[in-house]
Amino acid sequence: MALPEIAVGDAMLSATSGKFPRVTEDQHVDSAVEEVAAEILGLDPTGARWGAVIRHTYDMIYNGPETGRFRWSQLMKTEKTHFGTVFEINAQREFGFDGGDKTDYRIAGHQVDAKWSQSEGGWMLPPEVFDEIALVATGSDPDAQFSLGLIRVVEAYRREGANRDKKSSLNPAGRRSIRWLWRNAPIPASILLQLPDEVVTHIFASRYGTQRVNRLFRAAEGRLVHRNTVRTVAMQLDDQKRVRMNGGARSALKPEGYIILSSYHTHLAKALGVPQPDDKHYISVRVTPGGNNDPLIQGCRWKRASPEDPICEAPTLPDRGVREN
């Protein structure tokens, strides 16, 4: 992959818009950093894979199916500290990076150490990463965003002094010199952090997992719901059992006019004008009888219901791979 051309002082946009970030006038071009950047961007041009890694890391730390937790403030201090290690491991599994000699990875032939902080600039840098390249990342689960960049941890970019573990952090010049690959790029959102607090409280108020899942799909109509969110609300590992027709949310919500679409029903989601679920998401849609241009389900035409439309029983979704003409 050809390396990107970087002109000192150019006002460039972040990689989230398909261009490369600005290089400040006091920053020289580090060819090794650029080679690592090119390798990472070649593996994941949009940042979607990194976003999925971070989503998975949050979900692993929350351990929702066993604990019912879904937000950072619910974690213990030791669990928060463990996030960076899990992030590093998940990224290596996703991208197949080689292990470094004294750092986490070897990328494009260069030593690279992964560092995570919930707050930008809070990365703690041990002596083994001094003068090496750090992959620095931060994110916000409530905002469903992450940022990720590269920086060579030279002395001029480190704070003077160190803590008792001999760790340092980036000084203002170092933070300004980060080679950002993504800034405020999306991660798959947790719907439980997007819904109003009183709605989430109502969802979890039931002692029964099935009822909690039903409440979730009513509240999140027309919005993607991650499979792990279903597991968290149900406090059960088998999300498909809680969603399916025979005793799950599909059968419980059918009389109320709801269908619950999965990745097998992307054509219906598109036709109904809602986001299309992938293999990690569901989406509930309340439907009402439609017209000739609306999708055909169980022999009749259906459209997405408006709040004013009366409740009517929803159709049964077609079997996997079946499309009605």
UniProtKB/TrEMBL annotation:
UniProt-listed Gene3D superfamilies: DNA mismatch repair MutH/Restriction endonuclease, type II, Winged helix-like DNA-binding domain superfamily/Winged helix DNA-binding domain
Database matches in SUPFAM superfamilies: Restriction endonuclease-like
Keyword Ligase: no
Residues of the Type II restriction enzyme NaeI domain: 35-312
Entry annotated with the keyword Ligase: no
GO biological process: DNA restriction-modification system
Keywords: Endonuclease, Hydrolase, Nuclease
A GO molecular function held by the record: DNA binding
Lineage: superkingdom: Bacteria
Pfam families: NaeI
Protein name, UniProt field: Type II restriction enzyme
Species in which this protein is naturally found: Mycolicibacterium canariasense (Mycobacterium canariasense)
